[in-house]
Write a structure and sequence with these properties.
The protein has 364 residues and is of the alpha/beta class. It contains 9 helices and 13 strands. It has an 8-stranded mixed beta sheet with strand order 3-2-4-5-1-6-7-8, covered by helices on one side. The protein has a 3-stranded antiparallel beta sheet with strand order 11-12-13, covered by helices on one side. A two-stranded antiparallel sheet has the order 9-10. InterPro entries: P-loop_NTPase (IPR027417). Keywords: Membrane, Transmembrane, Transmembrane helix.
């Protein structure tokens, strides 16, 4: 397919270098194809150098023609208002199998007739000292925005082949150029800010660590002094009083570090609230098993377990008196206090009446 390729890019983006690289690759693949170019100082035995006013129509069929700085050619410039026959004949370039590559800085430097025939637009942007980003579009783009770059037909990073610098003349030997810095100042500011923040965090962590060590030392010193102070302050006089005082004066200790608020070291002493007691047994598949009041299995022999199931209950020293027994004891104590043993008949009669009344009320 015949191509009218437009190659654009700012100053120093590597337009000519990229073009020379493409030409050398083409000659390696098609050594017999004729190539005409006006790139200054091109050095290749298979590429023909032509003057700036070369008429592309004089080239052989199936050849390639490359025009550099095409904005200076009057017939291609946007400032040319007349429709020259050479430009009109570009519409028939495909019939002869000729390809035309034109190099300029901006697409808008060319006239509308030329731009309308472009079917491949290669745009280069400088991204590093020795590299450019290449965007390829399928038609001429006069305004290349970030959105258009995103949807480019093809894009890649082009690393400059420095060995090709000597095969063409890019700049004059006595020309002086200022070296451009490719270090982004915004990135430098971000890195400096991050460094300052990291230093501040390091200082804060170090201070917290030192304060934590100091707190631990103070706590250790206080714990060392507490036993002697406690012994001098609380001397028990009786066994029961001593137990109560040590219980009331005891301090529950917690090791706490503010730098690690979720890590606690508890030193608590818990009081026993309940004791295991035999609550019942069950026989299932000829195996007898006994449990505590909290449904904990007891390691009891089969003999004792079956003895329990036979109705022989052991005495329970932990069992509390029932409400009926407590009521009877209270009533008996009250009557004994009200009616001393000196009048046993009156006491028996009154007591019998109270017992009968309690039975009627269902208390006993």
């Amino acid at each position: 397919m015949s191509t009218l390729r437009l190659i654009t890019g700012g100053i120093g983006t590597g337009k000519s270098l990229w073009t020379v690289d493409q030409l050398f690759q083409l000659k390696d693949k098609e050594p017999d194809r004729k190539v005409y170019t006006d790139i200054t100082g091109i050095q290749h035995t298979g590429i023909i150098s032509v003057p700036a006013d070369f008429d592309w129509r004089d080239a052989e069929n199936n050849s390639l023609i490359v025009f550099d700085e095409v904005q200076y050619k009057e017939l291609f410039s946007r400032h040319n208002s007349k429709r020259d026959q050479q430009i009109l004949d570009l519409t028939t370039i495909r019939k002869r199998g000729i390809e035309l590559w034109v190099i300029t800085q901006r697409a808008r430097f060319l006239n509308a007739d030329v731009l309308g025939l472009v079917n491949e637009h290669v745009h280069l942007e400088k991204k590093a000292k020795k590299a450019s980003k290449v965007f390829i579009f399928q038609e001429a783009e006069t305004t290349i925005t970030q959105k258009k770059k995103m949807f480019a037909f093809k894009k890649y990073v082009y690393q400059y082949p420095e060995h090709l610098y000597g095969f063409y003349e890019s700049i004059k030997e006595d020309a002086k150029h200022h070296t451009r810095s490719w270090v982004h100042q915004g990135i430098i500011l971000v890195l400096i800010t991050m460094a300052i923040a990291l230093i501040g965090i390091g200082i804060t962590v170090y201070k917290g660590y030192m304060s934590s060590d100091l707190a631990k030392q103070q706590q250790a010193a206080a714990e060392t002094a507490k036993p002697s102070e406690t012994q001098n302050a609380a001397q028990p006089t009786q066994g029961t009083t001593s137990t109560q005082q040590s219980s009331s004066n005891s301090v529950e200790k917690i090791s706490y570090n503010p730098n690690r608020p979720y890590q606690f070291d508890y030193e608590f002493q818990y009081e026993v609230k309940d004791k295991p007691q035999l609550a019942g047994c069950i026989i299932f598949k000829n195996e007898c098993t006994c449990y505590t009041q909290q449904a904990t299995k007891l390691e009891m022999t089969q003999k004792d377990c079956k003895r329990y199931m036979s109705g022989d209950r052991p005495f329970n020293a932990f069992r509390q008196p029932s409400m009926q027994q407590q009521y009877q004891q209270q009533q008996q104590q009250q009557y004994q206090q009200q009616y001393p043993p000196s009048d046993p008949q009156k006491f028996d009669a009154e007591y019998a009446a109270k017992v009968q009344q309690a039975k009627q009320q269902g208390l006993i």
